[in-house]
Specification:
- By secondary structure, this protein is an alpha/beta fold.
- The chain has one domain (5-227): Uracil-DNA Glycosylase, subunit E.
- It is built from 8 helices and 6 strands.
- Strands 1-3-2-4-6-5 form a 6-stranded mixed beta sheet, sandwiched between helices.
- A hairpin with a 2-residue loop joins strand 5 (187-190) and strand 6.
């Protein structure tokens, strides 16, 4: 389904953002210097907007674009091992048309699922600073406002979890006290939506067995049931 005009305009605004000097310098340096295996490719080197079904009932919130993944391809979780794991799982769950994602023109279509990152630029060391996440947060608010069907939020990792709790608080939702802690398969109802936690799909987690395909499939089954997807 094509994006609405307000969503397309927001994506254009996200792509043009230069609010964080450290992130601008890093993402553009990576795009210039590249890595050997991608040296013939032109890197995106800009902020990365969300991707997926604009009528999605499931929203996936990740950390940030990968330096040689989405920062290279321009589509979230596309072109790196994290994306390989994520989209394979979504495909097994019937939420993605294919199990791989290598470029924005590879034909991948998401069903009932939309993916965003808490931070829209690749950060050095994959470690965003709190002030950078704060400056980026309004993009999450505005993008979610253009996704009216979302019922379930799947947070990949502690940063995605906190980003959603902060978003919910900004929207006036009543949060439990103390705030719910992130954990794999954590579940909490906030503002009429179910927030689910999953370990991030990073290589650090998937190659060590901290997050297995079976574990991720189980979380996706919960998300699908709760969303009615």
């Amino acid at each position: 389904m094509p994006l609405s005009l307000p969503l397309r305009r927001l994506h254009d605004e996200i792509v043009a953002c230069r609010a964080c000097p450290r992130l601008v310098a890093w993402r553009e340096r990576v795009a210039r210097e590249k890595v050997a295996r991608f040296r013939e490719q032109t890197y995106w080197g800009r902020p990365v907007p969300g991707f997926g079904d604009p009528r999605a009932r499931i929203l996936v919130v990740g950390l940030a674009p990968g330096a040689h993944g989405a920062n290279r391809t321009g589509r979230v979780f596309t072109g790196d091992r994290s994306g390989d794991f994520l989209y394979a799982g979504l495909h097994r769950a019937g939420l993605a048309s294919q199990p791989t994602s290598v470029s924005p023109d590879d034909g991948l279509v998401l069903r009932d699922t939309y993916i965003v990152c808490a931070l829209r630029c690749a950060p050095p060391g994959n470690a965003p600073r709190p002030d950078e996440l704060t400056r980026c947060a309004p993009f999450l608010d505005r993008e979610v406002a253009r996704l009216p069907e979302v019922r379930v939020v799947l947070a990949l990792g502690a940063i995605g979890w906190k980003a959603w709790l902060d978003h919910a608080a900004r929207q006036g939702a009543l949060l439990p006290r103390p705030r719910p802690a992130f954990a794999h398969d954590a579940r909490v109802e906030i503002g009429g939506r179910l927030l689910l936690g999953s370990y991030h799909v990073s290589q650090q987690n998937t190659q060590t067995g901290k997050l297995t395909p079976a574990m991720f499939d189980a979380v996706l089954r919960v998300a699908r049931r709760a969303a009615g997807a």
